[in-house]
Amino acid sequence: MINDLIYVYCVSDKLPEPEIDLASNGLNMLAINDFIVFFKHVPGFEFSEENLKRNISDIQWLEINARDHFMIISLIMGGCNVIPFKFGTIYNSPDSLTNFITEYSSSLIENFDFIRGKEEWTVKIYCDRISLNKQIDELSEEAAEMEKQIMASSPGKAFLLKRKKYDLVENEMDRLCTQYGQDYYDIFKNLSKSNRLNNLLPKEFTGREETMILNTAFLVCKDKVTDFINTADDLRKRDENSGFFIEVTGPWPPFSFISIKEKQ
Q: Deepest of 31, 163, 188, 193, by most Cβ within 10 A of its Cβ?
């Protein structure tokens, strides 16, 4: 059978404003109770449970379809609040989808109450340890004191102290990364309603030479977004010579702050 499965992108608590051209994106809407479900009919040869597992291992297929998933949710959320569904959420029939929405309606309402009027923004902090190393005597009293001892020592003792300083500097840079990361986190936390710490990503994943020291999602009230962005700009200017870099992106679909729970 062709296009016999239902691929769900997100659920809204009202129709989008302005109205979205669903047809051009192959989308459909289904009103279930007090919710609007946005979905697409997809073929089983791609999206059945077994075939989906196989296709996800195909990087090119995954990138194309994951990008489409995110793009469509972003399009819809531009006109209304949405609860995004995970990539690859499939239902076999309208009845199974209706049963899910009905069963979890109380949880959906709670989630909408929580995210309404808010946006998800991510903050990633990176450290260029080479640049930080160059500034270490200005940022660390212990490193500065040892440098004074090196300058005042004989060549032999200075050599030994330099080797000792190398270990000290590595430890001090680790400490500063922790300190700055915590400071950034606390500042942005105070500008948000909720937050979630994510795993740090390796360089091969970020494509950057700098080391990631903080990866956080924040749920920000829409009337605070400007302050959130301006704060990031101020911190970026403050610390640009210290080796720390701030990457703020958004708004994103609120994946990090949705929790659908069964009816108790």
A: 188
Question: Is the peptide bond preceding residue 43 cis, with omega within 30 degrees of 0?
Answer: no
- The two counts, helices (H) then strands (E), for the chain are 10, 9
CB 13 within 8 A of CB 35: yes
- The residues that bridge with 8 in the sheet, in sequence order, are 39
Locus of tokens 């010579």:
241
Half-sphere CA count of 92, side-chain side, radius 13 A: 3
| pLDDT band (50, 70, 90) for residue 121 | very high
Non-local CB neighbours of 112 within 8 Å, separated by 6+ positions: 13, 81, 83
Rounded Cα distance, 211 and 236, in Å: 16
Q: Is the per-residue pLDDT at 264 higher than 50?
A: no
pTM comes to 0.84
Give the pair of three-digit tokens for residue 18: 């302005």
Q: Which helix (H) or strand (E) holds 99?
A: helix 94-103
pLDDT digits (tens, 9 = 90+) for 95-115: 999 999 999 999 999 999 999
Residue type at 44 in one-letter notation: G
Strands annotated E in 81-234 = 82-84, 90-91, 118-127, 194-197, 211-221
pLDDT tops 60 at residue 1? no
Single out the residue of 248, 241, 246 nearest to residue 183, CA to CA: 246
Cα 31 to Cα 70, 91, 97, 161, 258: the distances in Å are: 22, 16, 11, 72, 21
Report how far residue 137's alpha carbon sits from residue 141's, in angstroms, rounded to the nearest whole number: 7
